[in-house]
Amino acid sequence: MITLISGTNRPESRTRLFVDYFADQLRRLGEEVAILDMADLHHGYFQEEMYQGKPGNADLVALHRRYIQPTRKFAVFAPEYNGSYPGVLKLFLDGISVIDYAGNFAGKHVALVGLASGRAGNLRGVDHLADVFAHMGAWVLPNRLPISSIENLIAEDELSDEETKNVLRKLAEQLIAA
Q1: Where are the chain's structural domains?
Q2: Which one is the CATH code of 2-177: 3.90.79.10, 3.20.20.140, 3.40.50.360, 3.30.450.20?
Q3: Considering the entire predicted model, what is its pTM?
Q4: pLDDT per residue over 163-177, tens digit each?
Q5: What is the dihedral of CA 109, 128, 19, 110, to 10 degrees?
Q6: Helices marked H in the chain — which ranges?
Q7: In which element (H, E) is residue 79 found?
Q8: Tens-place pLDDT, residues 42-81
Q9: Chain-centre distance of CA 56, in angstroms?
């Protein structure tokens, strides 16, 4: 199974459109896919116990067991927030780190996709995220994908830009081959 993480909880974010397209490409290539969307999570696990090495929230443990623990490959889609990636994604990564730090991402492959309304495709945020995953022992795919000016790539709530579709298909193939 490959887990895709939609890294924002912002209402009406366009991130999920890219995640869904990528999921379709993986499924067409015969892969089983799970989508973990930060918009679907409650974040009540942000509590003191989290920082004392105690996973105090049963929902967080269940998410870990469903989406993180059994997965060997991930694709993380991170929109640009203040020159980096969303804090909700960092909070989630911090929250699961107390459950099974060594087993979360160590030795697993991670593809990173940055999304931005601007022209840099969240390169800086993807670099920050790559450092976090590398610190946790993941193998980050070298072809980090920045996608810029996302509003120009979407028509009628669908990804419409052929070049972007092509690079996402190639990234899906690379993740499968990793």
Answers
A1: 2-177
A2: 3.40.50.360
A3: 0.94
A4: 999 999 999 999 999
A5: 0
A6: 15-28, 58-63, 87-104, 123-135, 162-177
A7: strand 73-79
A8: 777 666 666 665 656 778 888 889 999 999 999 999 999 9
A9: 23
